[in-house]
Amino acid sequence: MELFSINNLIKKAVENINQIKESGRLVVGIPQHGIIPDELFHAGGIFPLHLTLGGRAEQEIGDEYLSPTTCPFGRATIGCFDEKNELYSKIDYLLTGTFCNGVQNIGNYAKYFDLPVIKFITPHTTSNSAFTFFLDEILKLKVEIEKITGKKISKNEISKSIKLYNKVRKLLRELNLYRINIPSKIQGLELFYLVHKVFLLGPEIVIPELEQILSDIKDRDPIEKKARIFLTGSGICLEDNFYELIENECNGLIVGDDLWSGYDFYRVDIEENGDPIECMAKKYLLYNMCGRMIPDPRINYIFNIYRECKAQGIIYHILKYCDSYSGLKYEFKKSLDKKQIPVLELERDFAESNIGQFKTRIEAFLEMIQ
Ligand code: SF4
């Protein structure tokens, strides 16, 4: 089925980027998760390409550059640059900064691939001074985009881009209801692919497909799987095959998540009334639920979505050395124990040697909670 083919999606993304480049538009690569306003690049005529590729082979190439204490995502991203990945080789600028150790390292090594870097400093708190700082970073980013393209970005153009992204988020939220309600009519894997389609193809191309799925979804057969899972922790890269492992090989159903590569992308809209730049800053900083924020805002938030999606257990997925999503481990486990919510903690990288062991552990967990 086309929807579930990573290769087809990447092929389409390459064709799309080629067309974008032929029309004279530029492409910016974004490794930060969920805190950079796509809408601003879109309004400025630059395509925001979320960096989300990478698997075992790319991680191994990245090992040549970075120490194993850089997260697998960071190493695999560098691996993609080194192997001149068809998509990543089209990137004109790389947006990096202080997001986390992985992103900083990607930025530090960009010079080896002749990639000009745009720096964006992201605060770790939502205090008033952090908000003022973040707003200023967005304004600086706007000026930088205008300098690169030679064209001023009007507030009207930003508002139009906000409306477009709000539309795609709303459609994804509507589809998500068919995942969280019992019986589910859409798998976590399908929503994961659809979010990646937005990351790689942009909202204009994906909106008609989402509308079509929504108009047909009621006629789908209910999905029968062994157990309903909530997935939290580090995000999942497109070529990682982790959703496929849980849903296709182990017969689980991921009915909810809070990942940057999933629900977090479409969870909150940007207000459409008010100054568009301030509204962007509010959504991306004040409503940010990333594990890098201090204090980590996620525990109650995760419990609420867990309850809402009627899951039977939680898989807490940590990419090795991902400080952003491992800091909460101890406190989170204690709270889960208190609430008697079953949890399976999996710390991993993209190496294939451990897949058999993870499969056994996931299957045993699903057996236990079903
Ligand atoms: S959030 Fe974690 S996985 Fe993502 S780039 Fe940072 S350290 Fe790597």
Describe the protein's architecture and organization.
- The chain is α/β, with parallel strands linked by helices and 370 residues long.
- The protein has a single domain (1-370), classed as Rossmann fold (3-Layer(aba) Sandwich).
- 51% of the residues lie in helices and 12% in strands.
- The chain contains 16 helices and eight strands.
- The chain has helices at residues 6-22, 38-43, 56-62, 72-82, 101-109, 128-149, 155-180, 188-201, 203-216, 242-249, 263-266, 276-286, 298-308, 323-326, 329-339, 355-369; strands at 27-30, 47-50, 93-97, 117-120, 227-233, 252-257, 313-319, 343-348.
- A four-stranded parallel β-sheet has the order 2-1-3-4, sandwiched between helices. A four-stranded parallel β-sheet has the order 6-5-7-8.
- Helix 1 packs parallel to helix 8.
- It is globular.
- It starts with 5 loop residues before the first helix and ends with a helix.
- The mean pLDDT is 95.
- The structure holds iron/sulfur cluster.
- Iron/sulfur cluster is lined by residues 33, 71, 73-74, 100-103, 234, 319, 322-325.
- The site of iron/sulfur cluster has 14 residues, from helix 4, helix 5 and helix 14.
Could you list some keywords that capture this structure?
single chain, 370 residues, alpha/beta, Rossmann fold, 4-stranded parallel beta sheet, binds iron/sulfur cluster
